[in-house]
Each structure stands twice: as structure tokens, then as C-alpha cells.
Structure of DNA segregation ATPase FtsK/SpoIIIE, S-DNA-T family:
Amino acid sequence: MARSKQTKTKTSKSKEEKTPVFAFLKTRQTQNILGLFLILFSVFLCIAFISFFFNWQADQSTLNHLTDKTVKSNNLLGKIGANLSHFFIYKGFGLAAFFIVYQIFITGFYILIKRKFAKIIISWNWGLLSMVWLSITLGFLHQKYALLSGIVGFEINNYLQTFLGKTGLAIVLVFLFFTYIIIRYKVTIDTYLENWKAQRAERQENAEKEAIEISSAEEVEKVKEIPLENKEEKKSEFELSLENLQPTISKHSDVNKKETITLKIEEEPKIEPVLVEETVEDKNDLDINVEISEEEEHSTENLSDKILKDFGEFDPTLELSNFRFPTFNLLKQYNESISIDPEELEANKNRIVETLKNYKIGIAEIKATVGPTITLYEIVPEAGIRISKIKNLEDDIALSLSALGIRIIAPIPGKGTIGIEVPNKKSTIVSMHSAISSKKFQESQMELPIGLGKTISNETFVVDLAKMPHLLMAGATGQGKSVGLNAVLTSLLYKKHPAEVKFVLVDPKKVELTLFNKIERHYLAKLPDSEEAIITDTTKVVHTLNSLCIEMDNRYDLLKSAMVRNIKEYNQKFKKRKLNPNDGHQFLPYIVLVIDEFADLIMTAGKEVETPIARLAQLARAIGIHLIVATQRPSVNVITGIIKANFPARIAFRVTSKIDSRTILDAGGADQLIGRGDLLYTNGNSITRIQCAFVDTPEVEKITDFIGSQKAYAEAHLLPEYVDDESGTSIDVDIADRDKLFKEAAEIIITAQQGSASLLQRKLKLGYNRAGRLIDQLEAAGIVGGFEGSKARQVLVPDFMALEQLLENEKKQ
Ligand SMILES: Nc1ncnc2c1ncn2[C@@H]1O[C@H](COP(=O)(O)OP(=O)(O)OP(=O)(O)O)[C@@H](O)[C@H]1O
């Protein structure tokens, strides 16, 4: 109950804040105008009230003729002044009505100097209480002059007197007065006593000081009169002050000494040490003067709440606030009405029944669900028939139906029937348009929604990539993998603002994802030193993956310091302005890493790629880095155990063998798909057959053009820098430490135009280690390029002339 109440007030508050009136009231101009108005209005009332005390009797007759021009008022501020004064003073609180003037004035003043609203409220509370008290007190003191107390004070006074009597009321009024002083000004009897004691002590101290000063002055006079010779003896009394003198004085000759002494004695402050002694003695009698410090000001609200109130929630999309999401008309529409020939249905049904009959399997019931590319026949076998029997007949049924892509699901989970999926003769294309525009996708509250396509029952299939949390995609070439990847990316582009999601695209084939280059500054993330955001080069992939691991570690640190468990909570907290950007906190976009041809990467870089991928797959889910890895060859050396274990969500397009199907899905079936976007999706438990939404290259081009033509960030989202241990930049060999054979080695390499350690080994008759060191030094000098696996290093210097020049330049530096 309480919570619902709270939320209600919260929502009403936020509504208030959103209405233009309240927004308008918050501007400083409005506040200045309001403050000034209140101050001047209080001046107006003050003049009117004062004037009213002199003219109230004369103005009595004019009060009810506010609109009558002929009737004039004596009040300095006319009839309005007279009427207002009559209302507040005569009918209200008498002389105490001046409190209202004061309150209005102080409110205006507080608004001008931006005091807190709470202060204004407190001030009004005290002001109104004081007004009522004064009004009653004046009514009590001057019953004859009712104007002083106003009708309110007069009546309350009369009323209370009948209950308490005159004396009782007097006591109550005095009590209220002191209560007010004690609470409002925090004055207690102790403070008075202490102040009084402190004053008394100070008076005493002053009196004693004066006495000492007088006596010391007399002493000085006496000393002045003493002849120079005797002054040496007299000095003892002022010993302390003499010691404090500069050392130069002591080094003077006797004659000088005498002169110095005279000088010293003339300085009156030298008496001070005596004085100090006396006051110390004196202070022993004194009580400590305890100063009661004023209570610290407390804020009524949390700082982050205040920032939230003043600036509203943090809006990550603010920098690109005019960003427009791609429109539906960029996507092609196809004729998607599913039509299946009733004859085809009937024929299929008959064949299924007959085939099963041949194997002595009776059917109690059969039902067909027509999907975009396949039709599902659900059969209920007669009692006593074993399910495994039907499952084993898969190939026979396929043969008798003479169709590709038959899949038998026995039993359909949660239904208790057996499903036989038969492809339609005429398949319908599921357009991306229909997936994106579906209610299910549009209204989804998922973090990273993906409209993958349509199920057999023609429902749009929407999944959350954030929940997957990583996706493995496999399928033989030409079966719809690239289209599937585009469908995933398109879904995210239609739903997520550039501030909310960033893509890291790895495309070893170099052609599949190039279109996304156009949205580099909106949606892509890249390494700081790379020119192209889409990564096609293997070494860059390794760097990017390691950089993502660093980003992951950084994000975990942020999450830890924010004391939240995942990116969603973190971003919510950040939006609520509970995390300070000065402590390194920032809004974290999701990062989706897409690798188009994983097999290729594993072949070229092996462990170097596998290790960071496995690390990311294991740990990155909580911090918003999600992986989509696609491969043509779902063999076990590509999709290794460790990768498989961390990619529970899998999509299988048609694969060529049952083994591949098992590798990707841990079950058969993918080998029996019909291709062209026909896929099986699993997230660990059940397998769903889906017709992937179709988005072709011109559509992707239109979408990327649409986004690319809009205002973008200054550059792509930058990932943390990763310095490879083996890269040339990390080798920093001092020129002085170079091998004696450095120049000779350089010449051999330049002559051969081939940078390999074995060449140096042979030509210079060196051991492997020394040749390796030489190569490192040559690399650091910029003579050979970086390590390129089994290939020889590139030679960057064309001839000896260039070498000489390079070495000369080095010396100059
Ligand atoms: N969802 C779909 N609906 C209809 N047709 C599709 C669908 N997906 C793919 N196709 C058809 O299949 C063809 C090949 O698709 P795609 O290029 O995605 O295959 P691929 O698996 O990526 O091939 P490769 O691995 O060689 O790149 C497309 O040109 C298209 O004609």
C-alpha cells in the first residue's frame, strides 16, 4: 500500500515536473520576476497598511464601492490599498498583519537569492505563528483599541479568556513567547548563564590588565631615571625580553651594549611576559567559556536526488537527440499471405497416413499448421504405439513424401503429439519489414531485441541478444547466414539509438559487412589507431579481441565501484545520476561483436583468437558485451568445447552432414533443412524451426544510407588501446645497445630484401638467439616490418643510400 502511494506521489511529481508550467517556473528569469514582484508588492502593502492606520475611519464608507469612480479613498494606495488593509488589519490580525508584509518581502528576497524552498516554508510557518500570537497579545493588552489586534486577535482573546481567565491567558502568552524564543533562536538558560559568566571574567581581566599597565608604566618611568651604569642590574626584571633580542646585539662592544639596553627598556611590549604569567594564574579561577556552535545546515534531500530534480534523468541520447530511426519504408514488402494448395495438404496427409500404416502405425488424429515455408502435421498415434518407432521411420516417410527437409519431432515438447514438418511446394518469403513492424518486435521491452523471422505458426520470433547472451551461427555456404547476420544487425538498428549499442564487426571475407562502414561514426566501435572500423585483418582481430577483454575488465571495475551486478543496473543508476562522472563513470553502451567467418580466423590465428573469445564468452555477459560468431564449417576444431560451452544460443542454417548438425545443435535436424533462410534456433533446451527474415543488400544499403546521412559523433566509439607484446612498437632497443653486427645485418637484409632471422644465421654464422635479437633491433630501427607468422618480414628500406640516411638521422636525434 505504502509503496503504491509512494509511486503515485512520485509519478504525480514527475508529471508536474514535466508540465510546461513547472518547467517555466524553474527558469531564473521567471524566478527573478517573481522575486521582484513579491518585494514590490510587500512595499505596496506596507505603505497601504501604514496609511490605513491614519485613514481607516474616513475610508470606512468607501470600502464597498470599489468600482465606483466617484467615491475616493484617503489611503495612499487608493481603494485597493484601503480594501487590502481592511481585510488584513481590520478583519484580520491588526498590527500583527505587518508580519504578512515581512513574509512576502522575505519570500521575494529568498527567491531572488535562490534560497531553498524549504527555507521559505519554514519562514512562513514561524511568521504566521508569530502573527497570531501578537494579534492575541495585542487583543489582550488593548481591548479598547480593537484595530490593534484585528477581529481575529480580538475574538480569539475573548474566547480564551472565558476559558482561562485573564491571568491564565497572560501566563499562556508568556509561555508561548519563551517557547518561541527557545525553539527559534535555540537560546537556553545555560547560554545566558555562560555569556554572563564570560562577560564577568572579561571585565575582571580588563580591570587587572589596566592595573598592570599602570604599574608597568610607572616602572618604566623609574627605569628611565636610573643612570646608565645601574641599568645593567635593573635588567634582571626584564630578562625574558632581553633573551628574545637579536643575537647581533650581544656581539656589540660594552659601549654599544649600554646603548642597546636603553633602547630595549624603552620598548613597552617587553613587559608582556610578566603579564602572561599573571593572566595564566588568573585564568585558573575562570570557567571555560563554551561556545555552542551553530547547528550545521542539513540538506533536506540527497545530492544526487537534487541533481536529478534539477536536471532530470541523464539522457544518453542527448548528443544525437535529433537522431531518427530508419523508417519502415526502407524495407521491401513482399506478398506474405501464406497460401497452400488444399490438394497439396490433402495429398501430404494421405501419404503420411499411408506410410505409417505400412509400418502398422495407426493414427488417431492429424492436424496441419501451415507456416511460411513448411507445414507441420501433428499426429496423435493410436494407443500403444512407441514414439521411437515413428522417429526411426523419418527417412522412409521422407522418401514416400518425396520431399527434402522433412523433420520429425517426436514428441513435440509440451504438446504430447508427434510433429512431421513437410516443406511447402511454394514457400513464402518472410520480409524484414514484417518482422520489424510486428507488434511483438515494436512493443518488446528487451535490451537487444532481434526479430529473427517467423515460426511455423507464422508468429514473429523475437529474442533478446542480451539474454542469449552470445550467439553461434552455422550453416553451409549459401544457406542464409549472411542474411541472418544482416537481420540481426538490422533489428538492432531499428530499435537501439547509437548511444545505446555499438558494433565491432569482423569480416575476414571483406565484402559481407562493408555496407556498415557508412554508419561508422554512429554505431561502430574500433581501435584507436585503426583507420577502418570493420576489421578484415587477422592481427587486427587479435588486437581488437584483446582490447575488448580490457574493456571488459574496465567495465567490471566500474560495476564493482558502482556496487551493481550488471550493465542494466549500472546504466539505470547512472541515468538516475547516482554515479559521479568524475570518478570515471559513464553511460555504457552495449557492444555487439560480430565475427562473420570464424573458421577462417581459427585457421589463421588459432589460440590467439580462441583464448580472448572464450574469455569474453565466459565473462562478458554481465557487462554488456555480446558475441555473434558465424561459421561455415561447424567442425569440432573450429567450434571447440570451450567455445561451445559458452554459447548456449545457437542458430543452424542448413548444414551438409548430421555430424555438423550435432556439432552445432547437439542434435540432428539441421542437415534436413531446406536452405534459403530455413533455420533451427536453440537456447539450450528446445529447438524451434524458424524462417529467417529476409533482408537483401539494397535494403541494408538504404538503411545505412539513411543513418549515415544524419549527424554523427565525431568519430567511432573507441575501444581501449591494446599493446601487443610482440608488436614492433613494444621493442625499444637503445641505439647504444645494438649488436656490433647491426649494420652488417641490415645490409644483408636489404640486399636480400627479405627479413628473416635464418638468413642472418646463415650469412653471419650466428646462433638463433643472436640472429633473433638482431631482427628485433632492425625492427625497432624501422628497417624491417613486424612479425607476420610464417612469412618473412617485410623490408622497409629499399637500398643502402636509404639505410645510410636512416642511420644518420638516428644519430642527429
Ligand atoms: N531468409 C531468407 N529468405 C529467402 N531467401 C533467402 C533467405 N536467406 C537467404 N536466402 C537466399 O539465399 C541466398 C544466400 O544467402 P546468404 O548470402 O545469406 O548465404 P550465406 O550462408 O551467407 O553464404 P556464404 O556463406 O557463401 O556467404 C540469398 O542470396 C538469398 O537468395
Notes: The chain has five domains: 12-187, 209-283, 342-423, 473-718, 728-812. The two ends are 77 Å apart (CA to CA). Residues 136 and 153 are 4 Å apart (CA to CA).
